[in-house]
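Incident log, structure service

09:12 report received: a user says their structure output differs between two submissions of the same chain.
09:20 pulled the input from the user's history:
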Amino acid sequence: MADTAPAAAPPRRRGRRRWLPFALCLGAIVGIGGVGLRYWPPTATWEKRTGLDFLFMMRGEIDATGVCVVAMDTASVDVMLLDAPPWPRQEHARLIRQLKKAGARAVAFDVLMEPPQSEEADRDLAAALAETGNVVLGADVQPVIDPKFHEIHIVEPYEPLKAAAAAIGNVGLKLEKGVIRETFLMQDDRPSLALAAYEVATGDTSKRSGTARLIDYYGQGRKIETHSYYQAVDPDQYLTPDTFKGKIVFVGATDPAASGQTDAKDSFATPFSSDTNHSTYGVEIHATIAANLLEGRRIDLLPAAAEAALLVLLGLTAAVLFIGLRPVYAALALLGLELIWGAGAHLAFSRGQIWLPLVIPMVSMLPAPYVASVVWYYLTEARERKRIRNAFSFYLSPKMIERIVADPSSLNLGGEELVATALFTDVKGFTSIAESMAAPETAALLNDYFSRLTRFVFDEGGTLIKYIGDAVFAIWGAPVRMNDHAERACSAALSMARDEEGLEGGGRRIQIVTRIGVHTGPMLVGNLGSSQRFDYTAIGDAVNTAARLEGLNKYFRTRAIVSGGALAVAGDGFLVRSLGRVRVVGKSEPLAIYELVGRRGETLKAAAVYERFAQALDDFTHRRFEEALAGFREAGALRGASGDGPSEFYVEQCEAMLSAPPPPEWDGAVTFAGK
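09:34 re-ran on a clean worker, output below:
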């Protein structure tokens, strides 16, 4: 198994270059779509009916100034002992004079006075109108709908009254699906009742406009200061002296019985209407409009370009945030944006009388990119997980692959230099083993052998780089970073060295001896190769050194050799025997090497051998070759008939040194000319 199949493309992090273009595209679509919804009649109406009304409810009730209502109510009918409506015009004359006396700036009647009553009553009212000079009478345009024709009926005040009035104002209100939210200050070239009263009170005629204007309601019905008719005609008895002073007073019906109606057709739903307070009478709506004019209150929209830019910016911000975050964090971002937008719309409405769309952004524009981001996340995550599994199924254990899948940011790919630990293995005498077997038997034997060694690598979280002939090359510390890479590699090497289980091959049980080399150092790790083919691999001096250390096992007749550098990083969790300092092929500097013999806490049978060997090695490095020779022979004898490979190696070295002493500058290291 000399090579691997072509590697799959490496899994990538959720990089900005991948998702940012999609997020910007999505954000632009959402923003432009939001602008379209804002001006599409069905959704624009939905926004007005739901969003605007909700903004009123969020703002709550506020106080109106400069206006009040005189209610033509049932209580007044009872107290004043009036007959059935219409109300006597003498009483209206009396009311007008009392309001003028009380300091009212203007009086507006939300009452149609089209037919004459009695000559005396009409004369008295006309006189009162002329005397006060600040009364506005109501007029109306009423459609007459018949299957055969359509006719407009203009209702004007009785002519003598019209002539005596300070102004005439239309009492009609703009009803939209049962709710009044807007008004026209000018209707058919005539001011509305509220505008006419405002103009009489202030002399300001600059407010005339034929465009619809949103009404800034102060609260539910009866929020405007209201007094019963009977109180207003006798204020000295029922009211304080300044009740009407400096105010515009609107007079009108506030219940069906008092106005002579059989139903409440002069009451209307407003944004403040609720289950307990269904409607507001028209006279109070007129007073509300007049109060808006007096206070300079006006609910405005942002300029169309500014509103469109704001909606597009919202769409872009939401899309970039949601696509760039995992679904849980994106959900928190969604909640945050909803709260920010809602709070901003509330502040703009309550503090600046600016109506920002509320429902379209919060119900459609923000949830839409979030849903898209969740779909995008799971589609890309599924594809990313599959890529990771395909790319690393050869190199990593399933457990490590799942760790990467759960956190792709733990990967470091693409030609990065880092400190890691490399492990190389080789089979002792594999050539002679293979020569005694047929090719299929050799392949089966190798497959079983590699499966066993791969398990040792994966059990310690290592990365299998490749199989090279009968050798295994693995690393720890990449692509998944780990602080204990050297310790894990040494643990895997010790497990391999202690593996004594034979393998079936050629009809017999074969004992395979694995030799291992381990070294820690800087290496270049990543996907390396050509544009047609590449592998995830590691290269560098540290990798070459690990391979050289594996080769030293055949000289020392050991199973696992680890460098001093790897042992220093691995810690003190292992029992080792120093094998001295060596120079391997391609290295000029000596390298301290150790035989890996056990784990800390274990009892070693050959402890005496190792102790005597260490004494002899000290003699050897200090040029006491005769003493060293004796010590190595003694250590080998302590090992018994099997002998001690490192002792036998140094016996040969001592004999060579005695026959040809090293130069004075010799540093105690053994130089190897071959691999």
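09:41 both user submissions now match this output. Likely a transient worker issue. Closing.
09:42 reviewer note: The mean pLDDT is 87. The chain has four domains: 1-39+307-346+356-392, 67-298, 394-604, 605-675.
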